[in-house]
Amino acid sequence: MKKRSLWKKGAPFFLLLSLLILWELIVRIFKVETWLLPAPSAIFKEGAADSSRIMEQLASTVELSLLGLMIGSAIGLLLAASLHLFPAVKDAVYPLLILSQNVPIIVLAPLLVIWFGFGLLPKLIVITLVCFFPVAVAALDGLRQTPYELKHYFEMMGASKRQLFWKLELPHSFPFVFSGLKIAATYSVMGAVISEWLGAKQGIGVYMTMASKSFRTDRVFVAIFIVMALSLLFFLCISLLEKYTVSWKRREDQERDARH
């Protein structure tokens, strides 16, 4: 059982390592030009050689991603709570939320620059737009799926609508909220990179753009790997926060698995 658990945890790493080895072999066997498709070894070598510059760019992207994620998540939670407490508003607003996600960010971004300039505001708007929706939808689903039996019990105990929301519906929605936050956390990095294409002075998006224009494919892949690693790091941080915040949910799952 222990070996199986170790394999389950290590399987993604071994799969990724196998893919990188296969990539390396294909490039070497078929002698693919570096400008077309660099080998993983060349990408990691370039990343190490340019590490000081990359770290400066990375700090800017991390700061922008976190700020946008916090703003987008807060708006998503407030929106979900408002739509849940006022069902009539939900019927009118919910379709508009869905439509807001059908506007391509890459098309909207230049318009935001025209309207708000090259400062921080248009970049935060881009990240907020990609982050608030998964949080809002997940939180709304969590609030709506509160067990009827528990709600009925609270109402029998004389709980007001406010007490019902704060003491039952909101805590019950936490696992759903964290699911939305995990998605938003990965989207925030993508949103930050897209927003940096608008005309930022530094950031991984700027580094990627400069590398692409100079046909440094190895540096483009360095930027891609960094974005992937940063997204994974954000996802793991949210998962760790969920583990300690929603511990009661984990105990319920363990008890259910034990019964089955």
Short account of what is shown:
The protein is mainly α and 260 residues long.
End-to-end gap: 17 Å
Strand content: under 5%
CATH architecture: Orthogonal Bundle
| Strand-pairing-aware structural class | mainly alpha
Mean pLDDT: 87
CATH class: Mainly Alpha
The CATH superfamily is known as MetI-like
Oligomeric state: single chain
Number of domains in the coordinates?
1
Structure description:
The protein is an all-alpha fold. It has a single domain (51-253), classed as MetI-like (MetI-like fold, Orthogonal Bundle), CATH 1.10.3720.10. It has helices spanning 2-29, 40-49, 51-85, 87-100, 105-116, 120-144, 148-156, 161-196, 204-213, 217-245, 247-259. α3 packs antiparallel against α8 and α8 runs antiparallel to α10 (217-245).
SSE layout and pairings?
Layout: H1 2-29, H2 40-49, H3 51-85, H4 87-100, H5 105-116, H6 120-144, H7 148-156, H8 161-196, H9 204-213, H10 217-245, H11 247-259
Question: Which key phrases capture this entry?
Answer:
single chain; 260 residues; mainly alpha; MetI-like fold; 85% helix; 0% strand; globular
